[in-house]
Amino acid sequence: MAYPYSLHAWSANRTYELGDVVRANPAKANTLAFKCIAAGVSGEASVYADFPNKEPAFPFKIATELKDGTVKWESFEPLAEELLRLAPTAIIDLFEVELTQEVNNVNDVLRYHAGKNGLTEDIKFGGFTYPAVPVEIDGFEFSGKGVLPRPTLRVANANNAITALMLAYNVLAAKVRRIRTFAKFIDAANYNQNPSLTSEADVTDLLITQGGNTLIEQSFNDTADPDAKIVETWYIDRVSSENQQFVEFELAPKIDLTNLALPRRTVEEFCPWKYRGVECGYKGDSCFTVTNQKITSGTLEQRKAADVCGKRVSSCQLRFGTQDNLPFGGFVGARLQA
């Protein structure tokens, strides 16, 4: 059974019956679905006004219950239903390689599938097209020995295409997403390609009519569900082999990336956010020195050029006031010891 978000979005102050299913907003990246196990009316919109996407905090763990107004939800995995069938449809592996300006000097997302299970045509899933590419991918198996897998991605290097790509861009640390789903959940557009056409006069005796109107039969996939997927995230750690036939990349989980120190955020009294950045959020015209002295001379452009945050709580208060919810990223009262 498919439960696409477009048909199973949660609504406030709505009556739900036993067995009804809703999905969390796709922005949460929650692939679970939620079945009603106690009928009732969902919560008022005002209750969730401050929640992300203005909906209940749907859990990310299977078989977890959630109270919503007088309704009770239980989480389940839609993919598990298909996997436990006597004859499940083919498993589809899709891949996305995300390159960013900060890491790879370009903003782009490369999408493809490996052409397994006899699928050699482009696949459309979630509104995106994944072309078939000559690649081999293995090593995703997990074991209980405490060692995380390091999969390998081998791509055909026809006409030195991949070598040229690596010369133009730095592919190291690029994010690789492995998306697993079933054939029944891919987009309906996959089943409407290259339709055979004929004139109505040639098939007059074969057409079905109702009330004088000809009924046209159209093939489609009514089980399409872009939210029915499992996503694994990996990163390109190194180029393990390169020749005229193929280029092989070794993937790693984020925790195993070279030169990555954990924790990324340490307990210290100073704010680590970039001043006037996304986390900081300050966009005002009041400018100060690093010692919290207000800058009053010069034009606004000159004052902003000299504006420096002292990274202290007092620096934050000068810009935002003494409100309770300051965007201060440090830990008040903490001090690193030598």
Secondary structure class reads mainly beta
From the 3D structure, determine the CATH topology of the largest domain: Pnp Oxidase, Chain A
What is the overall number of helices?
5
> So what's the overall shape?
globular
* Largest beta-sheet details: 7 strands, antiparallel
CATH class of the largest domain: Mainly Beta
For the record, the CATH architecture of the largest domain stands as Roll
Lateral strand order in the biggest sheet = 8-7-13-16-17-12-11
Number of strands: 17
Radius of gyration: 27 Å
Give the distance, in angstroms, between the N- and C-terminal Cα atoms: 59 Å
Strand percentage: 25-35%
Q: What's the order of the H and E elements?
A: EEEEEEHEHEEEEEHEEEEEHH
Number of domains: 3
- What's the mean pLDDT score? 83
In percent, how helical is the residue content?
Answer: under 10%
Quick overview:
With 338 residues, the protein is mainly beta. It contains five helices and 17 strands.
Name the features.
3 domains, globular, single chain, 4-stranded antiparallel beta sheet, Pnp Oxidase, Chain A, 338 residues, 5 helices, 7-stranded antiparallel beta sheet, mainly beta
Describe this entry's structure for a reader.
This protein has 338 residues and is mainly β. The protein folds into 3 domains: 15-76, no CATH class; 91-187 and 226-256, Pnp Oxidase, Chain A, CATH 2.30.110; 265-338, no CATH class. It contains 5 helices and 17 strands. The protein has helices at residues 78-83, 101-104, 161-168, 300-306, 313-320; strands at residues 15-16, 21-23, 33-38, 40-41, 65-68, 71-76, 91-99, 108-113, 123-125, 128-130, 135-138, 152-156, 175-182, 208-210, 213-215, 230-242, 246-252. A 7-stranded antiparallel sheet has the order 8-7-13-16-17-12-11. The chain has a 4-stranded antiparallel sheet with strand order 2-3-6-5, with no helix packed on it. It has a two-stranded antiparallel ribbon with strand order 1-4. Strand 14 (208-210) and strand 15 form a beta hairpin. The longest helix is centred in the middle third of the chain and has 8 residues, at 161-168. The chain is globular and about 75 Å long. Mean pLDDT is 83; it is low at 194-200 and 214-219.
